[in-house]
Design brief:
With 113 residues, the protein is an alpha/beta fold. It is 32% helix and 23% strand.
Amino acid sequence: MAKKVAVVIQEDPRKTHRPVEALRIALGLLAGSHVTTVILLGEAVRLLSQNLDNIIDVDILEKYLPSIEQLETPFILQTATNRSSVRDEFCTRYETDENIRFFIQSMDCTLVF
């Protein structure tokens, strides 16, 4: 039975490799039977930015972004996010912190990075 999975990424991809690794894991879950949603909090939104400068493991990120786009990976971003910096080709929606909290609580499994 498919599970509803949230991958929450809250770390700054300019300071650690973990956000890029988290996207790789989310991609693996999406390729399976799980219903997977990626939630980007704070600086993690830089993973979908027009400008990928200074992101650790940017070469790996650039390799996976086309697959993430093709699979129409659903992303949830905070309403306070600067929307002009997020690339248009991704499936994004913007939610309040409270709605994000409720969404995470409704999941069968949550991975937090």
